[in-house]
Write a structure and sequence with these properties.
Blueprint lengths: L1 H13 L2 H39 L3 E6 L21 H7 L8 E15 L6 E8 L3 H5 L3 E4 L4 H4 L5 E4 L1 H8 L8 E4 L2 E9 L4 E2 L2 E2 L3 E5 H9 L6 E6 L5 H15 L10 E5 H23 L1 H20 L1 H9 L4 H40 L10 H27 L3 H6 L2
């Protein structure tokens, strides 16, 4: 009986192809939108997670400014906070304070124009940091050397170039020993970093590295740090090291109540948890907005099925006259709405997956580590939602058809 009803529904809908397609259009748009948003959200989330993991699973970040455990630090909101100092980094590097800290690197960052001789200037990122940068970041020098502990503490006019900056400025010329200008200040090139690509959404090759104090005093005119990174000897000590860092900074900043912290300490896993929570919330919020189209599609199906009932009143009367029950009529019209909705869901899923695949191909072509993610669960969910919406919005037209009086229906003109 059910199979015959499905065949009848398919034949009827196929005989009205254009109307059936227009009826399904709302479902197609809704389902494809949900699939695309869920796919892009999952792929973007994977990209963010991989970029954060590329920094290193045994790193702890220390930023100026307070934050709650699950929220971003003040500096992430674009607020300049000056509570973190170079002396704090020196204290964290001492084993009696933070026993499991393998290395501590300090950072200040900015942008500026770098020029060499008569060459056109290159706009690049300026990173003031400490000699421990290479150890903390697992970075290597391709030519020359990095600066020393003594040079990081004095106004040393030396610079280490990222591989891209070196290529842009010097081409095939050996940059070691050459003099360049950064913000009109002269610096001697002592090294070139090995090519690293993008880490944590920053092009590591489009940077120049200068000693911390030189950057603070000579270029930026500040005496605070942008942030610190602490490399932990083993990931099993991450939580303990976070507590040791907090205790050391509270002692240095004369803080007795943790609620008064003027710094934020996060390990990589905590950063991932925060980012995952934010991206999940955004992904499902956008999917919910896209799902509004499903409701619109459901209303469209209900309207068309009401029209279909009016068109088929005599048919309904005839079927009842030869023995069809109310439940038979109700089932027939519900199956037709389910077929319409499921058809729209299938087409929408195919379109959504196809568009998601094209976006993934484009992102990979542009150099992003972008995965194509359309999970089976999202496909089954799309199919289930399609049928559920079809049945929900098809109940009223089906009920209206089922309760028709056969005699009145046969007399209907």
């Amino acid at each position: 009986m059910i199979i015959q009803s499905i065949k009848t529904a398919v034949v009827y809908l196929a005989s009205r192809k254009l109307r059936s397609f227009l009826t399904m259009l709302g479902m197609i748009i809704g389902i494809s939108s949900v699939i695309i948003i869920m796919s892009i959200g999952a792929s973007a989330q994977g990209l963010i997670v991989n970029q954060i993991k590329s920094v290193g699973s045994n790193l702890i970040g220390v930023l100026p400014g307070a934050s709650d455990e699950n929220g971003p630090p003040a500096t992430a909101m674009g607020i300049t906070v000056t509570t973190l100092k170079y002396e704090d980094a020196l204290a964290l590097a001492q084993k009696q304070n933070v026993p499991h800290a393998e290395a501590v690197a300090s950072y200040v960052k900015g942008v500026g124009t770098v020029t060499w001789q008569e060459n056109v200037g290159v706009d690049t990122n300026i990173t003031g940091t400490t000699a421990s940068y290479t150890e903390v970041e697992d970075a290597e020098v391709a030519a020359g050397r990095f600066f020393s502990n003594d040079e990081e503490k004095t106004i040393s006019r030396i610079v280490v170039l990222g591989s891209q900056v070196a290529q842009d400025l010097f081409g095939n010329t050996d940059p070691i020993g050459q003099t360049i200008k950064i913000k009109r200040e002269s610096f001697k090139v002592i090294g070139v970093m090995i090519e690293r690509g993008s880490v944590a959404f920053q092009n590591q090759d489009d940077q120049v590295f200068i000693p911390l104090v030189t950057a603070q005093k000579l270029l930026f005119g500040i005496n605070h740090l942008g942030f610190l990174r602490v490399k932990v000897s083993d990931t099993k000590y991450l939580d303990q090291t976070v507590e040791d860092i907090k205790a050391t900074l509270r002692e240095r900043h004369n803080i007795n109540n943790p609620a008064d912290d003027d710094f934020s300490v996060r390990n990589v896993q905590q950063a991932l948890d925060v980012l995952t929570g934010v991206t999940n919330a955004l992904k499902f919020f956008l999917a919910a907005i896209a799902a509004i189209a499903l409701v619109v599609g459901g209303v469209g199906i209900m309207n068309i099925m009401l029209v279909a009932v009016n068109e088929r009143i005599r048919e309904i009367g005839l079927r009842k006259a030869v023995g069809a029950t109310r439940s038979n009529i109700l089932t027939q019209f519900l199956i037709e709405t389910a077929v319409l909705a499921l058809g729209g869901g299938i087409i929408g899923t195919i379109i959504g997956a196809g568009v998601s695949g094209l976006i993934a191909v484009g992102a990979v072509y542009l150099g992003y580590d972008w995965g194509f993610i359309v999970t089976p669960s999202s496909i089954f969910l799309a199919a289930g939602v399609s049928i559920a919406i079809g049945l929900t919005f098809g109940i009223y037209p089906a009920y209206k058809a089922a309760k028709l009086d056969p005699i009145s229906a046969l007399r209907y003109e």
